[in-house]
């Protein structure tokens, strides 16, 4: 998986590569065969009564792109909105032992599953919070980075408001039927697009 993600340009930096090599993705996709757990594809973890997906472990290619955009450094405070567990573990690797990772989701079954998976993979330092991501998690703010792993059509005011000075927001915005991950750095009350890693 890591070789593939490096080849297609998803993984570009040594820290992101090391995080992917360290975190055991199969522990966050229980019941899936290894070839599925490590494929560059979404793994559904929850559906509603009509069979529509409501929670998943994102495709690692998208996760790699977003982590590279976030440019997380050791010691940073990071908020993830939309919790599956796996991405929070990758964030914990990047933030290091002196960093702080908070992951939040509105669905109590999703947060319970994330806690379970994170404990199994030995990431007890990640704080899992039951919360409506639209409002962020003000109790642990400010954050150096906010990464949104749930679908978004807009940027609620709470997200840039909870960033520390110099902070960065990474969000997959759905525009005209397509989803594109974008990084923003709020400055003087406005969110400006951040430069992409090169």
Characterization of the model:
- The protein is α/β, with parallel strands linked by helices and 198 residues long.
- The protein has one domain (2-47, 55-193): 3-Layer(aba) Sandwich (Rossmann fold).
- 29% of the residues lie in helices and 29% in strands.
- The protein has helices spanning 2-7, 14-22, 34-37, 60-70, 86-95, 108-120, 158-161; strands at residues 43-47, 53-57, 77-81, 100-105, 127-130, 143-148, 163-175, 178-187, 190-193.
- The strands form two sheets. The protein has a seven-stranded mixed sheet. The protein has a two-stranded antiparallel sheet with strand order 1-2.
- It is globular and about 50 Å long.
- The relative contact order is 0.14.
Largest sheet: 7 strands, mixed
Q: What is the strand content?
A: 25-35%
Q: What topology, given as strand order, has the largest sheet?
A: 5-4-3-6-7-8-9
Could you estimate the helical fraction of the residues in percent? Answer: 25-40%
CATH hierarchy, class = Alpha Beta
Please identify which CATH superfamily we are dealing with. Vaccinia Virus protein VP39
Which fold name corresponds to the CATH topology? Rossmann fold
User: Count of DSSP helices?
Assistant: 7
| Euclidean distance between termini CA atoms | 21 Å
- Structural class, by secondary structure, is alpha/beta
CATH architecture: 3-Layer(aba) Sandwich
Number of strands: 9
Short description:
Helix content is 29%, strand content 29%. With 198 residues, the chain is an alpha/beta fold.
